[in-house]
Design goal:
heterodimer; A: mainly beta; 0% helix; B: mainly beta; 7-stranded mixed β-sheet; 4-stranded antiparallel β-sheet; 11 strands
Amino acid sequence: QKEVEQNSGPLSVPEGAIASLNCTYSDRGSQSFFWYRQYSGKSPELIMFIYSNGDKEDGRFTAQLNKASQYVSLLIRDSQPSDSATYLCAVRRWNTGGFKTIFGAGTRLFVKA
Amino acid sequence: DGGITQSPKYLFRKEGQNVTLSCEQNLNHDAMYWYRQDPGQGLRLIYYSQIVNDFQKGDIAEGYSVSREKKESFPLTVTSAQKNPTAFYLCASSPIPENYGYTFGSGTRLTVV
């Protein structure tokens, strides 16, 4: 079992719909959670981070964290073709000697115009 | 503008050759990281450094070496001991503590010829 799991997709949604991206993690001690967007051939860019259970909203993006169920999700409202990218989930947890950030393999999102 | 600069964008390595990837940041971040990305896989940590003249191995350090002589610079050398070096290499930085995610450079795509 991978430490951070994401459905590889592609997830296809029509323009204007809500895209829901999910991520599960195995270490209950994980403390910080991040979503990155990566366009094809480009480097990842940070979209959001969340530490506490519940929702965190930033514009069209909402991150949701449920530590009891060990999942974190990203909702993208009013999806646009420009949102088509791979979305990486990252989890930061304590490791011997310090913290460690683990990345999932990413979910490809395709927004149809 | 602050950011991370990676060079070159594309690099071709012959069998048995060592090559060095450059990473420079002007964000005044203490921590710097090197990741490798292969298709369908999450980012894997090669090396990281939290202070000048000190660095730690990540999960896949074999066949790689780094130095941190200046806060702004964290070059990665891919040695001939790395048997499968073809990949997309990403440099990242963050303040310490690393609570707010990483800033990534634009990446170097290395191909063995």
